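Limitations
The structure tokens in this dataset are predictions for the assembled complex, not deposited experimental models. Users should treat interface geometry with appropriate caution, especially where small molecules or nucleic acid strands are included. An illustrative entry is reproduced here so readers can see what is and is not provided.
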Amino acid sequence: MPSMSEAVTRFAVSPTGYMHVGGARNALFDWLVVQKQGGRFILRIEDTDQAREVEGAVAHIITSLKWLGIDWHEGPDIGGPHAPYTQSERLDIYKEWAQKLIDKGLAYADPYSKEELDEFRAAAQAAKKPFLYRDHRPDNPPTWDGTQPLRLKSDPKAYSWHDLVLGDLSAGAEAVDDFVLIKSDGFPTYNFCHIVDDELMGVTHVIRSQEFTASVPRFLNLYDALGIKWPVFATLPWIMAPGGKKKLSKRDGAKDVMDYAKQGILPETMVNFLASLGWNDGTEQEIFSVQELIDKFSLDRIQRAGASFDEQRLFWMNGTHIRTMTLDELYGRTLDNGVGINYWPEEAKAANDDYCKQVLGVIQERLKYLSELPELTRFFFTDLPVDLELIDGNKQLSKLSREEQRALLEAAQETLSGSNFSAEDLADRLNKLLETTGQKPGILFSLIRIATTWAPASPGLADTMHILGKDLTLKRLSISLDTLSEKA
RNA sequence: GGCCCCAUCUUCUAACGGUUAGGAAAUCGGGUUCUCAUCCCGGAAAUAGGGGUUCGAUUCCCCUUGGGGUCACCA
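Predicted assembly:
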């Protein structure tokens, strides 16, 4: 017997394509409730619309959830006491429950053709009234033989109910109608089978997004018809498209969660970010570990208004997560972020782990997502082509003549050739060089930095040279000097 | 059109009915011995409008406006 505080939630997903961020957040909140309160989290596949089903979608959804670190107690891949967890394999169960309603006189066969229904709808629209099937409920419906749609004989009345997020809600009898329970292809509708499954699987908390709130009175009517106790409802706000007021949908460019995984967003960042879209703990804290989220999460602190998906903020958040990781942890992620991608540039494949870690150590604070690694680190692994525009396009450096530039680099070459290339010694020598040349760091260091990396940006000069090592640093300086002579 | 839901800076958001309406992202300016970042300091930036209730409304109520959902044999 589970204790009162335990919860049973489910992520009920249609295999109609990849999982986007809205679905991921939905699953996350289901999961967080169970992690916090104890209980069971169920993954259920709602594949009752054969036409919309997409091959491979279930596997992709499972991959996405696993990447996020979301696991489940019962599901199509692992089974469980309420198996099967795929609705197309539960048709007999729905027929059984439909029969209960038929026996009670609460369900009947729909005798109308599609054309007749369209006419009813058109008439309702012309009269500027909502369409209610029950206004056309047949007096003597035929016996249901499975080829017609089976409809609920509703009991229209006003309903009031409580939603953990939206508070007390109510709607009048006009929201209750004779909806379809079983389609003419023998498959149940979502409206019917999710209620049967939730009951059989012991679901206590129905957490779903806004598009279902208008249907809740119809659901309540069905719970009552079946004699099922209402579960707890929690309505999640939309995740909206950037800038707009519209729900973020696949049409609007909602990305596959796995696209972010490939780009090098860390799963802990994605979890943190999704949780922050529509939820906060009431403090100013924004960066949460998964464990902190579990400890602090509660459904009653979920926002009512929609939140737009701001990628910029996602990248910022990823940067802060990257910076709080240990070097070893981060290095592990650069080798595999859970999607089988090694993010290092091709040229780094020949380098050893220690060298790569040193490089990672100095670029950790400027990394926002892992796929930036190549552009940030390539010059540590290969000589970039000399690009004099880096010098000539620099406001200060372009004021110097080629002779002056060469003189500075030669001075650098001389003192560096006596260095043991420890970071400390390099820093010392560079500082002394400022004095002996009488130059400002803005000129001297910029010039040396460019001449040793030929990259538009790089970490601190002493650190960079220390990692490159004496041979490579001096080799590059000398190549740069040669080039400056040629082009003089 | 009926029914339902929502409304604080550009964005994510905080504020037991009592705050100069706070933080963060982005942006702008400055600093940190070079670039790109990090970090630090500073600027600009909001309670949709109107009525109530109250000694006092971002907060409670009503109306308006705006946005969204739903009225499928999709979920």
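Some entries come with short summary sentences. For this one: Residues 325-378 of chain A form one domain.
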